[in-house]
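From the pipeline queue, job 12 of 40. The input is one protein chain; the requested action is below.

Action: predict structure.
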Amino acid sequence: MRERFWERYPLHELTGEEWEALCDGCGQCCLLKLEDADTGQVAVLNVACELLDIPSCRCSDYANRFARVPGCTRLTLERVEQFRWLPHSCAYRRLYEGRKLAAWHPLNAGDDRRLRRKGIDVSSFAVSQREVPEEHLEDHIIAVLPID
């Protein structure tokens, strides 16, 4: 990867490897969301996708995630704007909005210890989708995102 690529190149000039490296490993995008069809509001749950390894906040089958989880969403440059549910801390969102990466981001900090100390990741509160029956998902809402 090119040195400090996130500061030197616009998102559309990143290689696939660089794009993937922007992920801070917080796991927030792997939390389930419920969208209200009438209002467009998105409710975020503390329930993580069945493939998320919660302690590490990494997908346990990243290469096959789309085949195994039909609702898994591919985050691409062309679609970043559609994902208003991405947290404000998300590197993809920050760079898309013209902001810099946070100081705690692993690309700046050199590892994920600062990310974890700050509680940015979901490892301390997420539960697996395997543990929550579908009829109880609404009991796990932790935030309702306003319409932008």
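Job complete. The mean pLDDT is 92.
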